[in-house]
TrEMBL record:
Keywords: Cyclin. It comes from Malassezia brasiliensis. The lineage of its organism: Eukaryota, Fungi, Dikarya, Basidiomycota, Ustilaginomycotina. GO terms for biological process: regulation of transcription by RNA polymerase II. This is Cyclin-like domain-containing protein. Residues 29-53, 327-412 are annotated as: Disordered.
Amino acid sequence: MANAAATLPVVETQWLFSREDLAQTPSVTGISDAPAARSSASPQQQQRGTQTLTPTQERVLRGKGVHLIFKMGEFLQLGQHVMSTAVTYFHRFYMRRPLQVSRSGPGWSHYEIAAACVFLACKVEEALRKLPAVVDAAMSSLDKSYEGQMRWAERSFRANQQSHEFQKWRDSILLHEETLLTTLCFDLVVPQPHEVLVRATQSLEVERPVARLAWCILNDCLRDPTWVLFDAPVLAAGAFQKACTLRNVDPANYYAARPLDAPQVGPDDNYYDWLDVFDVDEEEAQSAMQAIDQDVYGFHMPLQHQRPLRGDKELKAKGSAMDLVASARTTQGVSPAPMPKTDTGARAEAPTNGASAAPVAPPANGPTDTSATAAPPGATATAPAAMPSSTAAAPRKRAASTSSRESGELSS
């Protein structure tokens, strides 16, 4: 496995992280590779040194930044793939740069970086939004007053472009966009786990409730750095296996017909099993499912119940399984919440044949909490009659995750 990692290009491994990397981020260790941040610090800050966070505190702040991304995405009516790209930029950035603990301290604010990630993702995913519109989205999403929340829900907020706050946000987004580009090494093409899930569930002809639940589980993964621990096929396979577990369905019951142009190893190799369709190993899928259960739901679910973050409804409007997983631990045969209607602007649309539609922005009167909607009846997958066992090409073995620090020091 180590030899395989050495032979892979750095571009394929520098954005795959391990649990050890999460415990040694710049926010936790206090070691920043950003000369600009150190040079701009005041003498008091330099004497005090870089303020550090615990891994738990860092994950909480990352969750708040992700919620801002989704609130801005709802305000701008962005597709799911745009927000997923922005969240990926966000998590990758803080694997190399420290979070800002206080307003006067060094580091990068999670709110300012989140706004810059949305602006950059709109460009990369060709969902262009003008800079004033992105500033309006950030200012409206952070307005905690009742009137501000009403204007956010109606998308009627328009900032005064001559005001000091507007100019501050405008300059901040432009400045942090440059920092993002250098930190991300201009590697802006992001694999989409949602897209992998859609194609796989369509090939496997998965029932709509199971595919919809897997889509919601992927959305919940956006909250946590688990999103950057696995590449797209592995994370999608883990979400699918988790959905099958919650629905009491054996994923081994799903098969896909072998394409006509695919090589046939044996005389009975006319079908692929679900692992071959996702192109993962059973060990990889199991590891991703355990990370989803422990890190995503085991960590964020208690926080949500203790102190719900502003933006939970916005994430649920895009499809979230947080409440469903909580009830599934004590309730048998629970069904997933229905998904919103299809967003025609999304690149990776949710499955329509045996799966759910892609999520969209909430209606004009505010975000919709899908957890209160009646759930559809469940369905059980059945294996095809006299289905031959799949002996197609052996699933690939992935290289071990390597730290991004192997790519060298970067300047901000």
